[in-house]
Amino acid sequence: MSSPDELARDTPPPYKRRRTGDTPSSGSSSPDVLAGNPDDFLPPRRLSQRRAGLSKKSVRRSRSASSSESRTRSQTPVRSSPSPTRSPRSRPRSQSPTSSNQSRSDSFSPEPQQPTPTPPREPLKPNYKARLALHGHAKAVSQVRISPNGRFIASASADATVKIWDAATGAHMDTLVGHMAGVSCVAWTPDSNTLASGSDDKAIRLWDRVTGRPKTTARKSAGQEMAPLRGHHNYIHCLAFSPKGNILASGSYDEAVFLWDVRAGRLMRSLPAHSDPVAGIDFCCDGTLVVSCSTDGLIRVWDTSTGQCLRTLVHEDNPAVSNVCFSPNGRFVLAFNLDNCIRLWDYVSGSVKKTYQGHRNEKFSIGGCFAILNGEAFVASASEDGDVILWDVKNKEVLQRVQGHKGVCFWVDVHGETMVTAGQDGSIRVYRHIGLSEEVNGNVCLSVYVESMIVFYGEKRASASCSIPS
């Protein structure tokens, strides 16, 4: 990826690529629990589907219970009542045992009715509409991230600043100043209280969101501002926090991946990861694995505790990889390539399961993510033509194309019904998902009203009643 200063130029140079003879390691291993079907990264079935499954089980159980009850009664002799009036359970002498058992089975264990199958519901399609345009950066915005709690937006820019915005109103909350060169990347801790930023000045700074100042140390000299994390020999390109927030992973143009102890503010481990700049990095959902990618065309999966490389993934065409992220359950890796393709890898088997196309990505390191909206998963990606494209994860269908920025759209992040993008035009754009019922609410009500009036005053006026569907 070009540095943030280079991103502001009119015609930035393309990536330098060189092929490599690295192939996937056959002797490497990874946890078997992470292997699975390529559709398993979707959320669990909804409650209504689980209830439908339970209803089927209850039908089978009632059948088995009724059959066993009938079998037991048929084997037990029935005594007649001494009174002249027969008991309901007594067997008339004129009836045979077979007919008696059959009638008893019919009277005491009726056949349960089969539940009507629920027709499959069509998947919810995202419908994001532009709501806010945030301005304040003097140069291109290289990355934008929504906090885990969905309340804040952090933006990194080539103007060497980081800005924090209110996600609901778009109000500017703070400007973090301290870097000596353009800022390429930002990352939130899981509690949304700490923000990390990586810059072309080769330093990583940790910020307290509440105070807008550098984070203070937790040991020895408590209350003292933490010094920037230094150790990389070139531009900082990508950052990611572990799910617990105690480890920070960083990728740099020096081709290395660093793992930092956030509380102590020290380097834990250095991984000589690639032979080209590290373009993307991410933690899996449980923090045990780290994935990195590079313009050398390689994707590598690392063990967080040991630093061992568990997998090396490389496509046969060896396209440069500009960004990478884990699926929500950690079983798959989504890779953004500079051949206009996004590939979903099963890193255990080392094979590509899905390929998403429809956007433009040939020169810049653009970013995207997995997103979940009302239980449905989709893939979101920026595009060099300024748009944002959303795909269905399973069938690879383009669900929505959102017009975004003038120039390159560098990054898109989604948190539920909120989507945020960053662009070369220096702006940040906020989108909200508008449900179909909200968008056409007035038209639906009018249609129902007109239909009911037609039924009431029409030819069938004298017959039945009119029911308005909900």
Automatic annotation (TrEMBL):
Indicate, by first and last residue, each region the UniProt record lists as having compositional bias (Pro residues): 112-121
PANTHER family found in the cross-reference section? TRANSCRIPTION INITIATION FACTOR TFIID, TRANSCRIPTION INITIATION FACTOR TFIID SUBUNIT 5
Q: Which Pfam families match?
A: Beta-prop_WDR5
Q: Identify this protein by name.
A: WDR5-like beta-propeller domain-containing protein
Q: Where does the record place its WD repeats?
A: 134-175, 176-217, 229-270, 271-312, 314-355, 378-401
The WDR5-like beta-propeller domain extends over 134-431
Start-end of Low complexity biased regions: 22-32, 64-105
- What keyword terms does UniProt attach to this protein? Repeat, WD repeat
For bias type Basic residues, the affected ranges are: 47-63
Segments for region (Disordered) = 1-126
Instruction: Report the domain of life of the source organism.
Output: Eukaryota
